[in-house]
Specification:
mainly alpha, about 0% strand, globular
Length: about 130
């Protein structure tokens, strides 16, 4: 075996973080859908779908969390809305497909804003000068 080549074992696979990440993503998607499908979602769907991903990105960015997982959670939520709306109304498929991608991008935008703010605060001159 070549040096530096990793050996994969069944034991290592059972300790994988993938099931945990999947569970966190599905729990997040369930929470988002619970808000959207509640009476609050009827009144503020657009606000939830635009401000929610940005706020999620900001929180994940400030906590140095997994931005990709948060973006995937919002994208999966958008795809759920696509399927749900297609079954119920048989329309708006393209809108939901584009919006699912846009929500993932908004999570990344929020995380970038948080990282930039953290950098500015970290590198700002001390107020005790």
């Amino acid at each position: 075996m070549a040096p530096g080549r990793r050996v994969h074992s069944v034991t290592a696979m059972s300790n994988s973080t993938t099931p945990k990440r999947l569970a966190i993503g599905l729990a997040g998607a369930a929470a988002i859908n619970a808000i959207v499908l509640s009476p609050l979602g009827d009144e503020g769907f657009f606000a939830i779908a635009v401000i929610g991903p940005i706020a999620t990105g900001i929180v994940v960015g400030l906590m140095r969390g997994d931005t990709r997982l948060a973006a995937a959670t919002w994208a999966v939520t958008g795809l759920f809305w696509l399927v749900f709306d297609w079954i119920v109304n048989q329309e708006d498929v393209a809108f939901h497909a584009v919006f699912a991608l846009a929500m993932a991008g908004l999570v990344a935008l929020g995380a970038s804003l948080a990282r930039a703010a953290r950098r500015i605060v970290h590198h700002a001159p001390s107020a005790r000068a």
